[in-house]
Amino acid sequence: MKKILIFVLIAFVGFTFACRKKSDPSPVPYATFKVNGVQKTYYYYSKFCKDFCASSTFCGSFNLHDNILPAELLKVGLPGNPVAGQVFKSGDYRFVFTYVDINQVWYTYGSLQLTLNRWEGQGGWGSGFFSGVLKSSATDSIVITEGYLQDLIWTYTPEK
Q: CA angle at residue 62 from 59 to 68, to 5 degrees?
């Protein structure tokens, strides 16, 4: 009887550890969206950082390929000290949203909106949803829908 009880106890402990919930995987920085109905997902990125991005306070970018050519690029510049729930619109002071297509045509003007649903500050994550219409300087326009981005936030803190 004692051997059966020990066996059942060991089996119970083993079953408990085998069935416990595994932690969720770490998030991955990326941007996904549709341009004129064509799905795009960019996994190459630069972290949101305090940078000179047309005078925005935080700047981050997403690329289709890991290269320095400005093609298949999404660049986002956020002014001030962003917070979750904040909405940025084309024309807002120091808000930058740029899409560069495969032919290196830059789309920066128009009526685009980005809503942050997460902003954790330095060392944390930022994410948001975006959509709207962007135009190039040649007046070509594109429609961006179902946009979502998430990225790490980094700011430089000098050592003292």
A: 95
